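Subject: Predicted fold for histone acetyltransferase, 407 residues

User T.R. writes:
Posting the sequence so we have a shared reference for the thread.
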Amino acid sequence: MALMNGETVKRKASEDASSSRSKKARTESPSLDDGAVTKHEDSDTEPLITPTPVDFPEKPAVIEEKQGQIEFRVVNNDNSREHNIILTGLKCIFQKQLPKMPKDYIARLVYDKTHLSIAIIKQPLEVVGGITYRPFNSRKFAEIVFCAISSDQQVKGYGAHLMAHLKDYVKATSPIMYFLTYADNYAIGYFKKQGFTKEITLDKSIWMGYIKDYEGGTIMQCSMLPKIRYLQVPRMLQKQKEAVMAKIRAVSKSHIVHPPPAAWKNGVCEIDPMSITAIKESGWSPSMDELSRQPRHGPNYNQLLHLLNDMQNHTAAWPFAQPVNKDEVPDYYEVIKEPMDLSTMEERLQNDLYPRPDDFIKDARLIFDNCRRYNNETTPYAKSANKLEKFMWQQIKNIPEWSHLAE
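User M.O. replies:
I've generated the structure tokens; pasting them so everyone works from the same file.
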């Protein structure tokens, strides 16, 4: 899922991985105790009733781990036979699930002794998925290099459960509190669900030059919380949900199920919604229904969002991802009076400020014109502006209803 490419990775040799280890991740999945009744020694005292825990819909991955069908093991290349079998299984899965990656590149990183891997294993030593990562302990972050689940084992919750195991393991065994990864368009959704974001809060001096900038990928960051056990998060959220629902039931009647209208006794027929007492009491009105049916965004939103995502993921987009830092370039805002960047465009798009593609293009051109105005044409910034603008027009030409805008 994490996007990598086959270029040579240059990292500082001073950053060594943790010592060789191969063990089950010490991150047992939580289990619920049954409800119980306890009595005081004083026979006159009423028994204390412990509420029966709320039923929790466990994912297949959690159930299989509890039943011993799968286990999670952290391994690295220490030349032992069993560890090599597991690493080879991971290599084969990564090579199959990441077909755009050179096979020899995947093999080199999986077997690299500075990298660690956490694997999902079915007995006997059948690897069904895993994550390969490189820890930078002195810098308190780790780079997720590869992440994939075997295609015939997906939709079981393996991916989320695997990431939870990794987070708990890394927190328990190292000072690392951050993950960085480059994700392709297909993996961004997965990483967002696991707490990753495109907003990089780690200072560039911490990670720049230590991880590879992969072409076509989006860098994402996950900041772990020290007091959270990530394997317990689903159950914790379920308890919070139950508490919120209980509060809602105390002040609302939305949980009450009403019988069907009497007029439908002999078959469904058209009736006036306001003739139903519960609907009338709820405060509902036909105008509210019309309002709820209105589209959230304009007709061009999805196409513009796709175009913006393509531009953000382009290799030449790095100078324009965020607003120019005034501390780094003190005179920029004295020269440029109408600044613009891709993150601002994303915010404006979400707020429906681009009803037409022309409005979107106007702001995009502002980015490129500002760059060329402030920077000499021979600088990497101006060259990136030219590349990204050319890419934008190519994408617009490929949209039939917008192609005339590129003429």
